[in-house]
Amino acid sequence: MEVCIYRAYEEMSRAAAQLVADVLNAKPNAVLGMATGSTPLGVYQELVKLHQKGEVDFSHVTTFNLDEYVGLPITHEQSYHHFMHENFFRHVNIPPQNIHIPSGTTTNYRAFCEWYEKRIVECGGIDIQILGIGSDGHIAFNEPTSSLSSRTRLKTLAKQTIDDNARFFDKPEDVPIYAITMGVGTIMESKRIVLLANGAKKDQAVAAAVEGPVTSMITASALQMHPSTKMFLDEPAAGKLKMREYYDWIQYHKPGAPRV
Ligand code: PGA
């Protein structure tokens, strides 16, 4: 894991967007793993800006989203289909047939989940996956005690996640209880991973994921076993890291490291 700490959310978002743009410029038909939630919004805004400046093209890109609420029609304002369309897809040039988001309204979840897994493989696997982290340490909707080898499936959301996400809904009881989510095992097969976290409300989850034991109680801790994960954090999210000086030391000395 590489831990990169930025002074502010905007700086963190710009750096993560540049990393994604570099992947796309090196491989124009890359497969992007997308996340929803408030955290990646800045990255999407930066990618849209880079696209408008002609610095990144999405015309050969394929995308896979991590998750979707069960039961919300795609037109619902809080569905992740709607979120992605409004905040990203309608501003860039990804061919609609290349966009994949789990269905929250299928009549056969088991078959859909199997198809989603197969489709990722058919498209060559995810080149770079963007992740947020829940205050309970989840990645996608892999709540505490999710198997670290889980695949795309239905999940019951944890009470903490429902409470965290209630801010987006008119009434707390409107938050769906079930979701369809990529598994930890699915995410771990991504070639590169960028996890983003900002704000002090994430400081404990971040510290547990980076410096705690690998445990299904904090599914983000599985990323310690991933060969190429970068944690992009702002100062408050990094506030509880014990090895902070070492992470800064690494970043300071990075430019002088031997080129491989
Ligand atoms: P947030 O959600 O970006 O809205 O904080 C993160 C997550 O639950 O993964």
What does the model show?
The chain is of the alpha/beta class and about 260 residues long. The chain is about 30% helix and about 15% strand. It has helices at about 10-25, 40-50, 80-85, 110-120, 160-165, 185-190, 205-210, 245-255, and strands at about 1-5, 30-35, 60-65, 65-70, 100, 130, 155, 180, 190-195, 230-235. It has a 7-stranded parallel β-sheet, sandwiched between helices. A 3-stranded antiparallel β-sheet has the order 4-8-7. Helix 7 (about 205-210) links the parallel strand 9 and strand 10 (about 230-235). Helix 1 (about 10-25) packs across helix 2. It is globular, with a radius of gyration of 17 Å. The chain starts with a strand and ends in a 7-residue tail after the last helix. The relative contact order is 0.17. The model has no long low-confidence stretch (mean pLDDT about 95). 2-phosphoglycolic acid binds near residues 37 and 132.
